[in-house]
Design a protein that fits this description.
113 residues, five-stranded antiparallel β-sheet, 34% helix
Length: 113
């Protein structure tokens, strides 16, 4: 098994949003593309108080090539790594909030039984 980079380790951590939505990350992979873009694929259990848990697979395309060095580095600068994690979390939260009424967002995720 290939050792995970610090970025993958940080991006694989579960977290709770300010409004109490919990993203439990059960798996996460990064697929690097020849043009230096990437696809971040998450296996998530989304937990909300008073609602049944939902399991999802979400593939976030990451076209911003300026983050390729952070994703692949064995020792990325901590400030850039923290910024990347916040950006990815924002994208996951945006996907969650818009998937019901935005076709492009809906296509990024697939609900698991």
């Amino acid at each position: 098994m290939e050792e995970q980079t610090p970025a993958v380790q940080a991006l694989s951590r579960s977290y709770v949003t300010a409004d109490g939505l919990r993203f439990d990350v059960t798996g996460m992979t990064v697929e690097h593309h020849p043009d230096r873009s990437a696809t971040l694929t998450y296996r998530l259990t989304v937990r909300r108080r008073g609602r049944p848990d939902e399991r999802w697979v979400v593939a976030l395309p990451w076209h911003d090539k300026s983050w390729a060095d952070v994703l692949t580095s064995p020792a990325p600068p901590p400030d850039r790594l923290g910024h990347l994690v916040r950006l990815v979390h924002a994208h996951l939260e945006e996907w969650w909030d818009t998937k019901a009424h935005n076709r492009r967002s809906a296509k990024l995720g697939r609900r698991l039984a």
